[in-house]
Amino acid sequence: MKKKILSLLLAGTMIVSLTACGGGSSSDTEAANESAQESVTAEDGAADAGTDAAVPVELTVTTTFAGEDGNAQNFKDAVAAWEAETGNTVADTSATSDETFKTRVVTDFETGSEPDVLFFFNGADANSFIEAGKVVSIDEIRAEYPEYAANMNDDLIADSLVDGKKYAVPVNGYWEAMFVNMEVLDAAGVALPGADYTMDQFKADCEKIKAAGYAPIAAALGNIPHYWWEFAIFNNQSPADHLEIPASASDANGQAWVAGMNDIKELYELGYFPENTLSATDDETFAMFTEGKAAFLIDGSWKVGGIVSACQSDPEDPATLDTEKLSHFEVTYVPSKGGERKATDLVGGLSMGYYITKKAWDDPDKRAAAVSFVEYMTSDELVPVFAQHTASALKAAPEVDESQFNELQVKAMNMMAGVTSLTGAVQDLFQGDCRVPTFDGMPEIVTGKVDAADAVAEGLDIYNNQ
Fold first, then answer.
1. CATH value at residue 118
2. How many Å is the Cα radius of gyration of the chain?
3. Are 389 and 456 in a shared domain?
4. Helix, coil or strand: residue 51
5. Which of 235, 382, 415, 441 is placed for a possible disulfide with 36 were both Cys, Cβ 3.0 to 4.6 Å?
6. Maximum alpha-carbon separation in the chain
7. What totals of helices (H) and strands (E) does the chain contain, helices first?
8. Does residue 385 belong to any structural domain of this protein?
9. Tell me: the pLDDT tens digits for 171-207?
10. Which structural domain range is residue 92 located in?
11. How far apart are CA 33 and CA 337, in angstroms?
12. Do 327 and 270 sit in the same domain of this protein?
């Protein structure tokens, strides 16, 4: 059976948090990349005529496709194929994405050590080098190479927060949804939640799960409250206003934030989180979920790979996958409160993309090679290899053989087919110390030591006075 990879995103989707950088694990990578290598050639128009450099050059390329990123090997294979096709070479300086990586990239631009091509975030993290004129906009590139990124839906390419122009050509996106351990639900006599799932139904199911001796929700509120923070607020808003940061805790949007914090407090008071939710780490509560001790987990598309790894006797060897164990995991929608946000309205977006730096663009030997490289990496044939079960901005995603994916990835594709909207994460606009009162302070909020309204007000005051 074949199915098109979903390209469902909203225009103006905002940036993803640092936690949204992980990639899903791939299946049959070699076969997928062989197909991509055969399809993406100069003759079939994958690259604009004349984009290959006349003389072989070496491009310095920096991405986040490194370490445990599920697309690290896909990137290596694609680079090797492009090198073989063009005669050019790549100096790969990729590294796993974290705050250190972000700082390194920004510092490289400040010191003139930036790469020729960069795969990086397209939100606030890119502001400094865009303001400095260190990267080239897609429109400027198209003035010389009209077909550059022509296979992409421009409405789904993020605008820069600096000047509203588009710079980064996206590859794969992300989504945040609810994973389910069906072994726990079956033991508690609870059915798999569907597309119209409400918080009232969710709480009724949690009560049954709790009575059966399991933790309903796998979450470490004292460590990583991020996903519940995001969706609890979203449940009191709509996709249209979720990305508007309140002016104060007393305005309509501020009250939605307060209501969201109190909703989490209610779930805590009902005993639906693990007993050690305030002291446990996120890794510990995730282990509870994969080991059949907790039922529900709200997390991102990158967690598909983590669940799959947890179902392998050797986490590093896909050949050791226990398919029977994996079959017990599902992915579905996050329950709504029955307001403007529907359960099928999820948090997600296209948070990263390929930039061509001014340094490479102004080098007559590297300009064509840089364009060729990005066109190759963002071609119709190669994007699905990276996007897998997430999302892309392709105008026409090619059909993908589902036999190349594991069962949970296929379930994720099916879930995404029912998504009605994707909205960016507001927490990524609300960064730094302003998040401390409600992120780090979540234990005090849920235990009643700090009033939710006071915590929200404190965070907003910090944000508005930065």
1. 3.40.190.10
2. 22
3. no
4. coil
5. 382
6. 70
7. 18, 13
8. yes
9. 988 899 999 999 999 999 999 999 999 999 999 999 9
10. 2-172+350-397
11. 43
12. yes
